[in-house]
Design a protein that fits this description.
Layout lengths: L18 H14 L8 H18 L11 H9 L6 H9 L13 H19 L7 H14 L1
Helix pairs in contact: 1-2, 5-6
């Protein structure tokens, strides 16, 4: 089969990267010792995404994909490929207040989430005795973060 006759399974995507993530892409390349010479930003993002996904596979956070399921797994995106509905999703992800949640929580976040759950249980178990102002104020702050 001639090289030009082969069908590629790659997907070409166009995405908008916020400034914080742009700098993080450069940080990852720097940590990996990859020089920026003759490297487009699109290539840089591709390398960093591949690196991040490989890290997640290595941590068993996501499975190693089975190549035979590619078409089945990508099928949901095919029906939206040329639809206007995609604009709504794009618009939401480009809003300034749109936040991506990290895959892993740091120790302080885990501690605050644990405290939030503890206070919620305490409040729900005995609402009449949940009167400590410090606990009420702390719970209000934690509800804004996790609720």
């Amino acid at each position: 089969m001639a090289k030009k006759d082969r069908k590629r399974q790659d997907e070409v995507v166009t995405i908008r990267i916020n400034p914080l993530d742009c700098i993080s892409v450069l940080d990852v390349l720097e940590k990996q010792g990859i020089p920026l010479v003759n490297l487009s930003f699109s290539q840089a993002v591709k390398i960093v995404l591949a690196s991040a996904l490989e890290t997640l596979r290595g941590l068993n956070y996501i499975p190693i994909p089975d190549g035979f399921t590619y078409l089945q797994r990508m099928a949901p995106f095919e029906e939206y490929r040329h639809r206007v509905a995609m604009l709504n999703i794009t618009d939401q992800s480009n809003r300034p207040d749109y936040q991506v949640k990290p895959l892993f929580e740091d120790f302080d976040t885990k501690r605050r989430r644990s405290r939030y759950e503890e206070l919620m249980i305490k409040q729900q178990a005995a609402p009449e005795s949940f009167t400590d102002d410090a606990d009420i104020d702390e719970l209000a702050k934690l509800v804004r973060e996790f609720g």
